[in-house]
Design a protein that fits this description.
Elements (H helix, E strand, L loop, with lengths): L2 H13 L6 H30 L14 H4 L17 H17 L1 H4 L6 H11 L7 H13 L5 H21 L3 H4 L3 H11 L7 E3 L6 H11 L6 H9 L2 E5 L2 H14 L5 E4 L16 E6 L9 H4 L9 H12 E12 L8 H13 E8 L12 E8 L5 E6 L18 H7 L8 E5 L26 H25 L1
Parallel strand pairs: 1-2, 1-4, 2-3, 4-5, 6-8
Antiparallel strand pairs: 5-7, 6-7, 8-9
Helix pairs in contact: 1-2, 1-7, 2-7, 2-13, 4-6, 4-7, 6-13, 8-13, 10-11, 11-13, 15-16
C-alpha cells in the first residue's frame, strides 16, 4: 500500500541538491514521518478525550500543527492549494520557524522521558536538507497520504522503514553499524527469552533494531493485560546512541513499531565511568551489536578497568557492569576477541569467564553483516556465576551469504533447537573451562567434529552476484549521465 509512496519520496529527494545519499533520504523522510505521526497521535488523543468529555491540550501550537503548515485541507478533505505554502515560502518557514520552535521543546519539556523532550532532541540534532521548496512540497504531499491510525498501517510502515534502514546500511562502508540482520536478532531473543517486567538495554542502539524486535517479541505474547502493555510502553526498553542520525532513526523506528515515547538517550555511552553504575542503573537483559574497530581517546579509556582503544571491548565491560546479578546478555563481537593475545583481550576473557556464565558462543559465517569485512560471534552469558562449560555452534547456512542471499530465520532454526539442551552435532560441541588455557583463556572456535570451515561459492553464485553488481553500476552510471 505504502511502498510506492516511499519509492516516490526517494525519487524526489534524489533530484534535490541537498540530498546526496541513502543516508540523507532516510534522515529527511524521518523528520517528516515523525511530524505526520505526531499529528496522528494528537488527533487520536484528542478524539479519546472528547469521548470521555475531557479537554485535550495539544503539544504543538496551532500554527505548527501538520494540518496547518504542511497540509491545510478544504472542507471536502483535499489539499487547499490557496493556503498551502510552497517554494521558497515553505522552505523558509521550515528552516526559520518550524525547526527552531520544535528544537525549543528540549528546554521546555518537563523531563527527558516525555515525547516533548524527544521532539526537542530530534529537531536539535537534524536540519532540513531539502533545498528546493517545490521538492519539499511534493514530498510533504506524499507523506500526507500515509496513515498511522490502524495497527496494520503502522505495521506496514515499520516494515518499509526497516527496509530503508537496511538500504542505508548497505549503502555505506559501515553497514553493520546501522543494520544487524533481523533473523540474527530474533534468534538472540529466542535464546535470551526476555519476560514482561524485565528491563532490556542496548547501549549502542544504532537504529534500535534490537529494541524494536524485542518489543515485537514481547507484545505478541498471548494474554497481555493493559498493565503489561503499559509496562512495555514505559519501562521496558532502554537505549543510548552517540550519533545524531542513528539517534533520530532509532526514535522513528521505535515509534513506528508502536512505542510512543522511546527511552532512548542521545549520549556517548562510553563517556560514563563504569565505576559510577549503581544497582538502580542495572538491567535484566542486554542485547547489542556494539561498533568495533573504533578507537576511543585516552580520557574515555580511563572510564574502564581494562584500558583499550577498541570500542567493542570497552562496550563489553560496560555491558557486564550494566547487568544485574542473574541478568542475561547476547552481544555480537568480532571473532578475533576469542583468540587475540593482547593484554586487554586476555583480561576481558578472564573477566567474562570468572564473573559470568558464558554458556553459548554462536559462530557466524562471513557475509552475515553486509558491508562489514569481519567475521563475528555472538556471546550469550549470564552474570553472577563463573563459566563451567561453553557450548559452541558453527552456523553454516550451506550457501555463501551476500546482498542477494542474506541470512534468514530458517538458517538459525537448528541453532535455536539445539541450544535448548546444548546438544552435540556436526556443527555444535562443548568445551570444559578446565580444558581452557589458564594463561591465555583462549576461546577460539575449533570444531572437533571437522565441521565445514569454508563453504566455497559455486561459479553460478559468483556469476549471479557479478550480474547484480553490474546492474547496480549501470544504474548508477545512468543517474550520473542524467545529471551531466
Amino acid at each position: 500500500m505504502f511502498e510506492q509512496s516511499f519509492k516516490n519520496i526517494d525519487d524526489i529527494l534524489h533530484k534535490d541538491a541537498g540530498c546526496t545519499s541513502e543516508l540523507d533520504y532516510t534522515e529527511q523522510s524521518s523528520w517528516l514521518l515523525f511530524l505526520k505521526y505526531l499529528d496522528a497521535l494528537e488527533q487520536d488523543k484528542a478524539a479519546e478525550a472528547e469521548l470521555e468529555g475531557k479537554a485535550y491540550s495539544f503539544i504543538l501550537a496551532e500554527v505548527f500543527r501538520w494540518d496547518n503548515w504542511a497540509a491545510p485541507k478544504t472542507p471536502d478533505g483535499r489539499l487547499d492549494h490557496n493556503a498551502a505554502m510552497t517554494g521558497d515560502d515553505l522552505r523558509d518557514f521550515v528552516n526559520g520557524s518550524l525547526f527552531p520552535y520544535l528544537a525549543g521543546f528540549k528546554q521546555r519539556a518537563s523531563g527527558p522521558n516525555t515525547i516533548e523532550y524527544k521532539i526537542g532532541e530530534v529537531f536539535s540534532e537534524i536540519k532540513n536538507k531539502i533545498q528546493s521548496g517545490y521538492n519539499l512540497r511534493d514530498v510533504i504531499d506524499l507523506v500526507d497520504e500515509l496513515r498511522f491510525r490502524s495497527q496494520t498501517e503502522k505495521h506496514e510502515l515499520s516494515h518499509l522503514y526497516e527496509a530503508k534502514i537496511k538500504n542505508m546500511g548497505n549503502a555505506g562502508r559501515n553497514g553493520g553499524e546501522y543494520y544487524t540482520p533481523r533473523p540474527l536478532i530474533r534468534a538472540m531473543l529466542q535464546v535470551v527469552a526476555p519476560r514482561i517486567g524485565e528491563r532490556i538495554y542496548d547501549g549502542a542502539c544504532g537504529s534500535a533494531g534490537f529494541l524494536c524486535e524485542a518489543f515485537d517479541y514481547l507484545s505478541s505474547k498471548p494474554g497481555l493485560t493493559t498493565a503489561d502493555l503499559h509496562t512495555l510502553q514505559t519501562r521496558t526498553f532502554y537505549g543510548k546512541e552517540k550519533k545524531s542520525l542513528a539517534y533520530v532513526i532509532a526514535i522513528m523506528n521505535m515509534i513506528l513499531h508502536g512505542i510512543e515515547a522511546p527511552n532512548v538517550v542521545h549520549a556517548n555511552t562510553l563517556a560514563e565511568n563504569i565505576a559510577d553504575i549503581q544497582d538502580k542503573d542495572r538491567y535484566d537483559v542486554v542485547l547489542a551489536n556494539p561498533p568495533f574497530g573504533g578507537k576511543e581517546r585516552r580520557e574515555v579509556q580511563q572510564n574502564f578497568p581494562v584500558k583499550t582503544g577498541e570500542t567493542a571491548f570497552l562496550f563489553l565491560q560496560h555491558f557486564i557492569k550494566s547487568l544485574r546479578a542473574g541478568g542475561r546478555a547476547a552481544i555480537v563481537i568480532k571473532n578475533t576477541f576469542l583468540s587475540n593475545t593482547d593484554n586487554a583481550s586476555v583480561s576481558l576473557r578472564r573477566q567474562l569467564l570468572e564473573g559470568c556464565n558464558l554458556h553459548t558462543v554462536l559462530d557466524c559465517p562471513g557475509g552475515t553483516f553486509q558491508g562489514a569485512g569481519v567475521k563475528t560471534v555472538v556471546l550469550f552469558f549470564e552474570k553472577g556465576a563463573p563459566t563451567r562449560r561453553v557450548w559452541y555452534y558453527q552456523l553454516d547456512p550451506g550457501r555463501s551469504l551476500g546482498k542477494t542471499t542474506p541470512l534468514n530465520d530458517d538458517d538459525l532454526a537448528e541453532f535455536i533447537a539445539l541450544q535448548k539442551t546444548f546438544a552435540d552435532s556436526t556443527k555444535s560441541w562443548s568445551v570444559d573451562v578446565a580444558d581452557i588455557d589458564a594463561g591465555t583463556y583462549e576461546l577460539s572456535v575449533k570444531n572437533p567434529n571437522g565441521g565445514t570451515v569454508v563453504t566455497l561459492r559455486t561459479p553460478k553464485d559468483i556469476l549471479d552476484e557479478i550480474a547484480v553488481l553490474d546492474a547496480e553500476s549501470a544504474g548508477a552510471l545512468e543517474t550520473i549521465r542524467g545529471l551531466l
